[in-house]
Amino acid sequence: MQVTLVQLAATLDSAVNRDQVAARLRDVEGGGLVVLPEGAMHDFGAPDHDLAAVAEPLDGPFVDLLAREARRLGSTIVAGMFERTDGLPFNTLVVVGPDGDLAATYRKIHLYDSFGYRESDRLRAGEIEPVTVTVEDLTVGLMTCYDLRFPELARRLVDAGADAFVVPAAWVAGEHKVDHWRTLLRARAIENTVWVAAAGQGGERYSGHSLVADPWGTIVEEAAGGDELITAQIAVDAVQHSRDVNPSLANRRM
């Protein structure tokens, strides 16, 4: 299956972001899985930026755009948005199928209360309900950014049948951050013998380095820091082969 990662830098103007997403998707070959970053609908902005005021419902203009593009491309699209609620919004991944229907949503479980920042002041954590979705012959588990630092979520996803993890992110730049990003993505691939496809925001504020890692933890494609598209072929056969050779999941005792 083809997977395409769209690395971009979102702005604080949701209409501009929709135009940017539509323009970037015009460069995508149809079919397979297309992954956009966390916050592709609207950037986080400064800590005092009111995300509740810009959050959208699941039938709002951002998801409507994704539905049109998914139908046009014949692809499944995963993208991050802020989902409107009666109180603090959710940090939500939406999965739109090639028919344009909403196939799944994942509301970020682990909010980024770390490195001097408190995401929980601005957003609501989702229920502890790991989410998988079938894309062609692969079962894909959904994670968002800071979730990557919690291997227990990855284990729950692989126990639910995941052959691949998709990780949209807005991984803030800083000391150690790119090294942590690459190391953690490879670790989740190695310890769970899954593909990992991670689409991050780029630009000055975020780390970029969107990448695809195979079930051995080898990085097969990686972006740098700017606006980029990267594409890779991923296959369930590679997952089964890695698990035959390295049956660490079957050998677990805890």
TrEMBL record:
<comment type="similarity">
    <text>Belongs to the carbon-nitrogen hydrolase superfamily. NIT1/NIT2 family.</text>
</comment>
<dbReference type="InterPro" id="IPR036526">
    <property type="entry name" value="C-N_Hydrolase_sf"/>
</dbReference>
<protein>
    <submittedName>
        <fullName>Amidohydrolase</fullName>
    </submittedName>
</protein>
<dbReference type="Pfam" id="PF00795">
    <property type="entry name" value="CN_hydrolase"/>
</dbReference>
<dbReference type="InterPro" id="IPR003010">
    <property type="entry name" value="C-N_Hydrolase"/>
</dbReference>
<feature type="domain" description="CN hydrolase">
    <location>
        <begin position="1"/>
        <end position="236"/>
    </location>
</feature>
<dbReference type="GO" id="GO:0016787">
    <property type="term" value="F:hydrolase activity"/>
</dbReference>
<keyword id="KW-0378">Hydrolase</keyword>
<dbReference type="InterPro" id="IPR001110">
    <property type="entry name" value="UPF0012_CS"/>
</dbReference>
